[in-house]
Amino acid sequence: MDLRSELHKAPLFQNLELLANQIVEGFISGIHKSPFHGFSAEFAEHKIYNNGESTKHIDWKLFAKTDKLFTKRYEEETNLRCHMILDNSASMYYPEVDDLSISSLNKIGFGVLAIAALMKILKKQRDAVGLSVFSDRYSFYSSEKGSERQHQMLLAKLSEISLEKVPAKETHLYTYLHQIAEKIKRRSLIFLFTDMFQTASDDDKIFDALRHLKYNKHEVVIFHLMDFEKEYHFNFENSPKRFVDVETGKHIDLYADTVKEAYEDGISKFLKNLKLQCAKYKIKYVEVDIKESFAKVLNTFMIERQNFL
Questions:
Q1: Could you tell me whether strands 189-194 and 219-226 are parallel, antiparallel, or unpaired per DSSP bridges?
Q2: How far apart are CA 196 and CA 106, in angstroms?
Q3: Nearest residue to 247 (alpha-carbon basis) of 154, 175, 165
Q4: Rounded to whole angstroms, how far apart are CA atoms 106 and 125?
Q5: Interval 222-247: pLDDT, tens
C-alpha cells in the first residue's frame, strides 16, 4: 500500500457536518455574549424593524423580552444567495498541525470549518449557497443552490481537502478572484476566506480584483485568516532558523529577533493599506486570528445577512 497516496485521500476532518453543528450550537448557546444580546436563537425567523415599515408583523412578545423591535420573517422571504470562496493555496496550510480539531487548527482548517458552519445556518434558512475553491488553479465552482443535495455535495468537497501538506505551488490570488467574479452573475453575499498571501507582490492587482467582486452589486466580506502570534507578531525563538516560502520553495536563514521589528512594521503597513482599500470599495474587512473562536465569523454573517436583505 502506498501510504502517501492513502494520506492524500484522507479527509481534513472525519465528520465535518458534526463539527459544524457543534460550532453553531455552541455559538447560539452563548449568543448572549454577542452583539445580539437577547436575540432569539431562532434568528432566521426575525429581522430588525426599520422605521416606516408596516407594524403588522412586529413580534411583541420578543419586544417585551428585549425592548427591541423585530418583525417576523416568513420562509418565502429568506431568499439570500451566498457564495463562499476558499483560498486553498499552500500558505493556508500553516501552521502544520498533526491532528486537526476545533481546538487545534491551521488556516485551511479554520476556513473549512467556518464555511461548513455558515452552510449549516444557510441550510436552516433555506437559503442558496455556492462555493469556489482555488489554489494554483481555479479548482472548483458550484453556483448558488438551496437543495439538500447541494449541501451534501459542498460538504463532501470541503471534506476531501487533503490532510497532506499541499505541494509548493505559485498562487496568483487576483487571477482567480477575477475569474470567480465573472461567474457570479446574480446579486449575492460573497465571503472570501484567505490569508492574502500570494506569489506576486503587486498589491494593486489584488485590490483591482477585489473591486471586481463588487460587480453586479454583490456584497463582499473578506475574512483575513492569520496566525497572529507568528504571522503578525513574528514570535519565534531567537535561535538560527530557516524560513521557507511554501509557495515558491525559497528560503532564508536568520535569527527572528533581527528582523522582528522590521517585519511587524511591514505587515502593519500592508494591513493598513488593505483596510483602506476595502473601505474605499465598500468591502467588509474582518481580521480573524485562527487561535480564537468562530464567534467573529458567525456574528459578522448575522449582521451582513440582515443588511443584505
A1: parallel
A2: 15
A3: 165
A4: 29
A5: 999 999 888 877 777 777 777 776 66
- Average pLDDT of every residue of the chain: 81
- 249, pLDDT greater than 60: yes
Report the alpha-carbon distance of residue 78 to residue 45 in Å, rounded. Answer: 9
Query: Rounded distance, CA 269 to CA 40, Å?
Result: 40
d(CA 224, CA 220) in angstroms, rounded, equals 13
- Range list of H helices, 198-294: 203-213, 256-280
**Residues of 208-244 as b/e, b for ≥16 C-beta within 10 angstroms?**
ebbbbbeeeebbbbbbbbbbeeebbebeeeeeeeeee
Residues ≥6 apart with Cβ < 8 Å to 121: 24, 44, 298, 301
CA-nearest of 11, 85, 39, 29 to 293 is 29
Query: Between vectors from CA 100 to CA 93 and to CA 172, what angle results, nearest 5°?
Result: 15
Cis amide leading into 167 (omega within 30)? no
pTM summary value: 0.79
Tens digit of each residue's pLDDT (9 = 90 or more) over 145-187? 999 999 999 999 999 886 555 554 667 788 899 999 999 989 9
Asked if 274 contacts 15 with a C-beta cutoff of 8 angstroms, the reply is no
